Predict the structure of Amino acid ABC transporter ATP-binding protein.
Amino acid sequence: MIRIENVSKQFGEIKALNDVSCVVAPGEVLVIVGPSGSGKSTLLRTINGLETISSGRIVVDGVEVGAKATDMNKLRTSIGMVFQHFNLFSHKTALENIVMCQTVSLKRNRAEATAIGRDLLARVGIPDKADSYPSQLSGGQQQRVAIARSLAMHPKVMLFDEATSALDPETVSGVLQLMQELATEGMTMVVVTHEMGFAREAADRVIFMDQGEIQEEANPQVFFDAPKNERTIKFLSQIL
């Protein structure tokens, strides 16, 4: 589903990514962990072209990201992304946020988009918030709207960039549960997170990044119970 081949990304003198390669299979949940500044979010953002790469190649569902022949707007409709900060339109209701992305990007008619939007608000557990504006919603509710908005595009891949880090601790578990349900249903997911419980429970594979490189990757049991890389061991000892 996703193939990342020898990808590097330079910001001036800073090498955010250094020759990174990995593959995400259809239906796989890949969780990326690591310290701040390790390149996790940068790698995630290169998958849908929000960051252009300096070298290497990324292919999503057979389409090369950033290639001259690639329609990036079309490709992005198949790649859902949920950010740390919810990025909702403040002047539109929860339902309108979900409807607009469909009518603009997918050219769905408004009636169909509205029906899908209402179904998804029910799916994420807030059907009664359709007419509420973002300022009237809690952080967890706003993030549920953001997830519903991404799901409305019927994506083949979902990317989550620290989706719970801006939330109140009391609302984190609800969003994580929703993400875990998506994983159980077979959604291909790449998740950057500090939530080690989610990584242990939902991931098929965990990658540890540091200094722009993949230092270790393994299934969750091996990663958490028997890490091999000294940097991984130190990182886990500080957060677990």
